[in-house]
Amino acid sequence: MRSLILVLSFSLIATACGDDDDDTAATDPATGSGVAAPDDPDPSPEDEPVPEDAEAETEVADLGPPVAALIVRSVTGELDTFIETRDAYVADLEAQDGIVHDREFLPFLSFSTFSQPEPPVYIGLTSGESLPQFGAAADAVDPALAGAYFPTFGIEVFGILQPLESGSPVDISAIATEPGQVLEVAWRDLSAYENFDPAAYETARDAYLAELASMEGFVEEYQWVSADGGSLAVGMTVYESADAFQAIATDADFNASDVYGAFVGGYPIAGGYASTSLK
After folding, report:
1. pLDDT of 131
2. Mean pLDDT, to the nearest integer, of 106-130?
3. pLDDT given for residue 30 in this prediction
4. Is pLDDT at 77 greater than 60 in this prediction?
5. pLDDT above 50: residue 108
6. Cα–Cα distance for residue pair 247/62, rounded to 1 Å
C-alpha cells in the first residue's frame, strides 16, 4: 500500500505541475499576452528570435527549485534482500532524467531509544532538479523493481524537501563525506505543536543553531522544509567525529542553556538518528 501511495503521489505531482509551459510558450514577447502588438504588421517568430538556450532556461526555471527526497526506512525482512532490492531500485532511479545524486546513511544511535536501532534503519537522501522532475523520475522506475524493494521496509518518515533558505541549493554529495564524520538527522512535524507560532519557533531555532555552531566539533548545519508546503521540518548537523558528537550531546552547560530548552524542549523532535555515510 505504501508503494502505491508513493507512485500515485508522484504521478499527481507531475500532472499538477506539467501544464505551465504551454501557456508561457503562447505569450507574445512584445505585449506579454497572447495577442500580437498592434504596431507589428507581421508578428512572426522570425521577427523576434528567441535563443534556444534561453527558452530551455525558462522552462527549467518554471519547474521550481532543486529538491531532495528524505526517506528513513526500518528493515522488516532479510537485510540482504533489502540491500539487493534497494541497490537495484536506486540504480534505476539514478538513471532517470532529473535525478542528481543519491546518498545512504547508516544510523548507529536512535534518539528515541538512545541505543543502536534494531531492526536496522537506513536513511536515504536523493536530490532532484525540481519537484515535478523528481516525481516523473520516480514514476519512470521499473515497477518490478519498486515491487520487490518497497515490501522490505517500513517508512518512519518520507518527504520531498527544499532548503530552508530559498535560492541556496544544497549539494548533497558533499554532506558528511570526510572519514569519521557523523550526520545527525532529526525531523519535526510543525502541525503537531499546540498553538504553534512560526515566529517564536524560528527565533528559538535560530538561537539554538547559533549556539550549536559555536561549539568545538561542529562542522555544518542544513535546514530543510517541505517542498510542497507541508509541515515537515528537518535538521541535519554534521560533526567532525563520533567523539565530537558525543561531547556536544552531553555538554552540561549546553543542555542547561536557555536556547537549548527553548528549542529542544519547546519543540520536541518526532524522530532522529546519528549516522555515518555509506554512499
Report:
1. 95
2. 97
3. 33
4. yes
5. yes
6. 45
State pTM to two decimals: 0.78
Full 3-state SS string of the chain: CHHHHHHHHHHHHHHHCCCHHHHHHCCCCCCCCCCCCCCCCCCCCCCCCCCHHHHHHHHHHHCCCCEEEEEEEEECCCHHHHHHHHHHHHHHHHCCCCEEEEEEEEEEEECCCCCCCCCCEEEEEEEECCHHHHHHHHHHCCHHHHHHHHHHEEEEEEEEEEECCCCCCCCHHHCCCCCCCEEEEEEEEHHHCCCCCHHHHHHHHHHHHHHHHCCCCEEEEEEEEECCCCCEEEEEEEECCHHHHHHHHCCHHHHCCHHHHHHHHCCCCCEEEEEEECC
